[in-house]
Write a structure and sequence with these properties.
This protein is an alpha/beta fold. The chain has helices at 95-103, 109-113, 132-139, 163-167, 184-192, 232-238, 285-289, 315-318, 351-355, 383-389, 403-420, 424-430, 434-440; strands at 25-28, 31-44, 47-56, 66-67, 70-71, 81-84, 89-90, 93-94, 116-118, 124-126, 147-149, 155-157, 173-175, 199-201, 222-224, 247-249, 274-276, 299-301, 340-342, 365-367, 395-396, 399-400, 463-468, 481-486. It has an eleven-stranded mixed beta sheet, with no helix packed on it. The protein has a five-stranded antiparallel beta sheet with strand order 6-3-2-1-7, with no helix packed on it. The chain has a two-stranded antiparallel sheet with strand order 4-5. It is found in: Cytoplasm.
Length: 499
C-alpha cells in the first residue's frame, strides 16, 4: 500500500478498539474546522491495528475509500477520503465544554503575537486591547450572556441534562455553526434548556433526515439551517415545533422542490416574515408559487438559483381544494404582504417576466442584478427601463429609486419606445405601461394634419414651443429665439447672456 493512502502513525501505535461508529461526525484532532463523517471502522490490509475511514467535508483526502483495489467505503469524491488512527480524530465536546474553551480560555503567546497592524514602513506594531480584562471578565459570567458563538468548536452533544439551563440563564442567541451536531434530539435538548432562546444558527452541521419527536419550541423566532442538507419535507415537520418562527434561512441545501404534504400550497408558518432560499437549485417558478399563501411573508430571498421566469400565481392554483383549517380566507391574494423579492443571479431573460412583478400587491423592493434581462451586454435592458416598467418599485438592486430618478426614467423610456416603433398595437403588447406613462407625464401623440396622411408619431408632440425675445435695449437688438421644451420643464429667472 502506498504511504499516501493512509495517515500513518508511528510504528509503536497499535490499537484494537474504537468508540467511533458509522456516520458519526468527527473532526481532526487539533483542527476543529477539518470535519468529516466516519464511513468505516476496522482493519486495513497491510497495516496493523484499527483504522477509521473518514470522508472529509472539505474534499481534501487521499482516495475514494478504496486502497490497493480493496473498496472499504464509497466517498463523495475521488480524493475526499482517508484512513486515520482513532486517536487522530475527535468525537467532539459538549456545549458547556465549548463554552469554557471559547470564553474562559487564555490566549497563547502565539495568539498574542498575531495581534498586530502594519506601520507605514511595513513593520509590525503590536495592538493593545483596551479594557480586555474587563471584557473577558464580563464574558466569563455565563449567566449574564445573551448571545453566544460556539462556531467550529466541535460541539457534538448537549451534555448532562439540565446543566446548560443552569449556566446560561439569560441566553437569547446561540450560534453553533460548523460543529458536529447531526441528531435533532440533541438540538432539541439544547433548546429546551434555554427557555429564552429566540435565535439559533445551525449552519454547516450535517443534520439527520429524521426530525420526528421534537418538542414544542415556542420562543424560537429565527432559525438558520444554511448548508445543512435539510430538504423541504423536513421543514414541513419542523414547522409544527416552531409556532413563533419569523425567519427561516435555508441557503445552500440543493433544494429543487417545495413539497407540501397535503395540498399544492404551503400552509401554516403563520408568523413567518422572511424566507431565505438563496444558493439552491430552483428552476421552475411553479415551485415558488406554492409559497403564495404564507400570510405574513414579507421578504423572499431567491438569489443565485436557476429560475428562468417569474409569474404571479394564476387563478388555477387559488382554486386548489384545501381541507379543514387549510381553507383560504375570503379575499386573500397570492403573496399578499410580500414587499421584498430578491432574484439576483438567476437566469431570467424575458422582459415580460419583469412586467409580471407589477401584479404583486405590495412589492416595492426588487433585486434583478446578474440576470440576463438586467444586463445590457447580454441583450438585457438598462436600469431606467426596469424602473419605468416596474410601477411600484422603490428599491431596485439594493439602490433607492428616488422620485426624480423615476420621473427621468419614465420620460426617457417613453422617448425610447416612440423612437423604436409607431405601431400602437405592437407598443401596447410589448410595453404594458406605455399608455399609462404618456398620460401621467402629459405626452400626446402627434396629430396628423387634415390634408396629409397620418405619419409616424413623434416625441415632438409632447413639447411646447417657447419664443424668447430680447427686451433689453442697452444690450442691443437680438433676434427672437424659439425653443421646444417638455411640458413639465421648470422655468426660473435667467438673463439674456444665458441664451
Amino acid at each position: 500500500m502506498p504511504n499516501s493512502d493512509v495517515e500513518k502513525p508511528p510504528d509503536s501505535v497499535e490499537l484494537t478498539t474504537s468508540a467511533f461508529t458509522i456516520d458519526q461526525r468527527v473532526h481532526f484532532a487539533g483542527d476543529s474546522r477539518r470535519i468529516g463523517t466516519v464511513k468505516y471502522v476496522g482493519p486495513v490490509e497491510g497495516y496493523s491495528g484499527l483504522w477509521v475511514g473518514v470522508d472529509w467535508d472539505d474534499g481534501e483526502g487521499k482516495h475514494d475509500g478504496s486502497v490497493n483495489g480493496v473498496c472499504y467505503f464509497h466517498a463523495k469524491t475521488p480524493k475526499s477520503a482517508s484512513f486515520v488512527r482513532p486517536h487522530n480524530i475527535s468525537a467532539g465536546v459538549t456545549v458547556l465544554e465549548a463554552l469554557e474553551l471559547r470564553y474562559k480560555g487564555t490566549s497563547t503567546k502565539e495568539e498574542e503575537d498575531e495581534m498586530y497592524v502594519l506601520s507605514a514602513s511595513n513593520r509590525r506594531v503590536s495592538v493593545q486591547l483596551l479594557g480586555k480584562d474587563k471584557i473577558q471578565d464580563k464574558l466569563s459570567k455565563f449567566e449574564e450572556l445573551e448571545g453566544v458563538s460556539l462556531s467550529y468548536l466541535g460541539v457534538s452533544s448537549s451534555g448532562v441534562p439540565g446543566q446548560i439551563g443552569s449556566v446560561l440563564l439569560s441566553l437569547r442567541r446561540l450560534d453553533l455553526t460548523g460543529n458536529l451536531l447531526s441528531d435533532w434530539k440533541s438540538i432539541a435538548s439544547i433548546c429546551e434548556q434555554l427557555p429564552m432562546l429566540s435565535a439559533l444558527n445551525l449552519s454547516h452541521n450535517k443534520l439527520s433526515y429524521d426530525v420526528t419527536g421534537l418538542p414544542m419550541l415556542k420562543n424560537l423566532r429565527i432559525v438558520v439551517l444554511n448548508h445543512t442538507g435539510v430538504q423541504w419535507t423536513q421543514v414541513e415537520v419542523l414547522k409544527h415545533s416552531l409556532p413563533a418562527l419569523e425567519e427561516l434561512h435555508l441557503m445552500g441545501n440543493e433544494l429543487r422542490e417545495i413539497t407540501p404534504p397535503t395540498s399544492k400550497l404551503v400552509q401554516g408558518f403563520d408568523s413567518l416574515r422572511l424566507l431565505n432560499l438563496e444558493d439552491n437549485l430552483f428552476e421552475d417558478w411553479a415551485e415558488i408559487s406554492k409559497l403564495s399563501q404564507l400570510r405574513s411573508l414579507e421578504q423572499l430571498q431567491l438569489n443565485n438559483n436557476n429560475l428562468k421566469d417569474i409569474a404571479y400565481p394564476d387563478h388555477d392554483i387559488m382554486r386548489t381544494p384545501l381541507s379543514g383549517q387549510e381553507q383560504l380566507k375570503q379575499g386573500d391574494k397570492p403573496f399578499q404582504h410580500l414587499c421584498c423579492l430578491l432574484l439576483g443571479g438567476n437566469n431570467i431573460n424575458d422582459i415580460s417576466a419583469v412586467d409580471s412583478l407589477n401584479y404583486f400587491p405590495n412589492l416595492v423592493d426588487i433585486r434583478l442584478s446578474d440576470n440576463p434581462v438586467a444586463d445590457p451586454g447580454k441583450g438585457g435592458v438598462p436600469r431606467f427601463v426596469l424602473i419605468a416598467r416596474l410601477a411600484k418599485v422603490q428599491m431596485l438592486n439594493g439602490s433607492e429609486v428616488s422620485p426624480r430618478e423615476r420621473k427621468e426614467s419614465e420620460i426617457r423610456y417613453i422617448r425610447l419606445v416612440m423612437s423604436k416603433s409607431s405601431n400602437l398595437k405592437e407598443i401596447q403588447q410589448m410595453h404594458p405601461r406605455f399608455a399609462e406613462l404618456k398620460v401621467h407625464h402629459g405626452i400626446e401623440d402627434e396629430r396628423p394634419s387634415s390634408t396629409g396622411a397620418a405619419g409616424p408619431q413623434k416625441m415632438a408632440s409632447g413639447l411646447l414651443s417657447v419664443t424668447l425675445k430680447c427686451v433689453g435695449a442697452s444690450i442691443g437688438e437680438k433676434p427672437p429665439l424659439t425653443k421646444k421644451l417638455p411640458a413639465t420643464t421648470t422655468v426660473r429667472n435667467c438673463c439674456l447672456a444665458d441664451f
